[in-house]
Structure formats: structure tokens, C-alpha cells
Amino acid sequence: MANFQITPRAAFVESNELNFRSLYLFHTPLGSNQNQSGIVDSNVTTGLGATVVNNWPICDGPSPGATVVARAQGLHIYAGNWQNTFSITFEVERFKGSTLQVMGISVEEGEWAIVGGTGQFAMTTGVIYKKFHEQRSDGNIIELTVHGFCPMLKGSQSRPTKVGPWGGNGGSDKDIVEAQKRHHH
Fold first, then answer.
1. Distance of alpha carbon 47 from the chain centroid
2. CA distances (Å), 83 to each of 104, 113, 131, in order?
3. At a CB cut-off of 8 Å and minimum separation 6, what does 110 contact?
4. Kind and range of the H or E element at 18?
5. Which of 3, 50, 56, 100 is least surrounded by CB atoms within 10 angstroms?
6. Domains of the chain: which residue ranges?
7. 4 or 19: which leads in pLDDT
8. What is the pLDDT of residues 140-153, one digit of tens each?
9. SS3 at position 81
10. Model pTM?
């Protein structure tokens, strides 16, 4: 008989919180600028097994001239729903070479799980919220919001780079120039 147990665990772990908003995934399965390709055909009776490789650009805006900041590179396989498993590989200089490992069903709506990462995002967990943005003749554009937590690993010198306005409705962003101060007990 199955026994599922969840035990509370109190542990203090320093982490960085990721909040990436207003990102747009260009899902283009049709036309001359396709960014995915079928590599395994489906079972003709069930439709199961279709496998598609994807290299979807993720941009800083929904317009055709928007800057590519990352790419969703991996596979999606039809198993009753489209099961996606891919790496978000960052191209923007600030995060270049870092990845988020992502899994989940469907493309257009819902959520994907962040199940890991590398580089600046090593061991990140979280969720990517997906919202349909625009239907186009060759595919669609999906708005992404990334929310995750990345533990600060021993020896990492990860520093915050910006803080928002302090208190009230006014103010402006400020750069933090000194390293974080750590309290030792």
C-alpha cells in the first residue's frame, strides 16, 4: 500500500528570487521562418509519439524587431498532450551561458515548471506563467513571466544589481555598488 509522507523541514537557505516579466516566445511552426521541426511521426491510430525539436526565440517585446534575449531549445512530444522539455539558453550579455531547465505540457496557456538551471541559475526552481499574446499566420506569440528561486551556492559572489523605488509611489531605481554584507552567527 502506498505511503506518501511530507515532512516539514526548517532550513535557512539564501537565495535570489527571479522575476522576469514581459518576455515573448515566438512559436512559429509554419512558413519560411519555422523554428521547430518534426523528427518522429506519430502513430496513425492514436496520434501518440510525434516528436518535434524546437528552437523558439524568446524576445524582450512582441514586435518583429524585438531583441532575442534567450532561446527555448529542446523537444516536445505528443503523449495525449504536448509534453515539453527544453533549456532556456540565455543570449543577453548579463546571463549569457546560463540556462533554465523547463518541463510541462502545452505551449500557449498555463504553466511550465522550472526544474533546474546552470550558470547564474544553478539549481533554480520555479514556474513560468504563459499567456497567449497574438495569433499570426505562421504561428503565435506567447507572453512569459518567469518566477523562480535560485539558491546562492557556497562560494558564489552573486550580487544584486538593482532595487526598485523605496517606499511610496515615487523614486527611481538605484545601482548597488558594494558587495552584500553577511551576518555570521
1. 28
2. 6, 12, 17
3. 104, 130
4. strand 15-27
5. 3
6. 15-151
7. 19
8. 999 999 999 999 87
9. coil
10. 0.76
